[in-house]
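[job 4471] stage=fold_predict status=RUNNING
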Amino acid sequence: MRILYVVESAATGVGRHVIDLAVAMRLRGHEVTLIYSPIRLDDRFREGVRRLRELGADLRELPMQVAPTWADRAVIAEVRRVLRAGSYSIAHGHSAKGGAVARLAARGTGVPSVYTPHAYITLSEHVSARKRALFAAIERYLARHSAATVNVSEAERRHAIGLGIAPDRLHVIYNGVEPPVPGDRCGVRQSLGFRDEDLVVGFVGRLSAQKNPLLALEALAIARSDAPNLRLLFVGTGDLAADCRARAEHEDLKGSVVFAGETTATPFFPAMDAFLLSSDYEGFPYVLLEAGSYGLPMVCTAMDCAREYFGQGFEESLVPHRNAESMAEALVRLAKDDAFRHVLRNRVQQRSAGFTIDAMADETEALYRRLAPKAG
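[job 4471] inference complete, writing structure tokens
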């Protein structure tokens, strides 16, 4: 097959997903073209581009803005030109902008288009009712002009159905992660100033409203009176980075919080004792699977995707949205209850074992073959 991937958000989980998928398809012998915007790139995506170049993929930079602009017409026209110039089997767009560009460009070319939203913006509580209705209408319109939408969880699929998208065009394919990489636990902890007796809780992701890092800090401020050995490690940055540092100082959390900044998270996982996901909403986040692969017991806001991951019987790991007191109670239990941490550790390792890149690629490749008239 000849596959075209389009992505504007070439960073964080979206960028990671696109690179993993493109590399997997290239290794399976498919021709891969990747059109990406150079405006939002992270180091992981840059490394992925280098890997794809070594594998002989066709890589094309095409500047795209996050928000809709008149320049999008030229972007769509260029992607359509690429599709018409080659004998493509599939055009696969990722996240809102990449998905819109790929689907609109594919119209009239005979190339089936596929869309992976990576968490619909309509999941956000920060979006007004008026904007939510507008975004939902756009999603319905674009869904009629695409062959399939790939949701990364059953929860996201249910949300899509609620937006009015036809269920027969929705397919659930979970994200996949690589096996855990052994690391220098003691060395990393010492470099960050943690002691052996500290219970280090990790937060990995953008410091943004969606991820709600301020809630994590509020919960730690409450919990530390009952569990003074709790420490919070932030790996990532974002538009709330300065607010987080200010909140940590205001709550007198000096010595209890470490900000590692924007860096590869992999070396930090072995240094953690537990993991915290305080997001307001997610599709099916990579960090949930990655933390699980390292056997980290977790505390998560009670998003549908987290319920889906944990399954029945592990409600203790899930806390109400934006409830610092409940989150603090859960953190204190993790800090004090060794047996509970052990049970959770086994649970997350078992759950994460099935979420592999190979499994994600297998299901995606099978979907392409069902949709593409030129599948080979």
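[job 4471] summary: The chain has two domains: 2-176+356-371, 185-352.
[job 4471] exit 0
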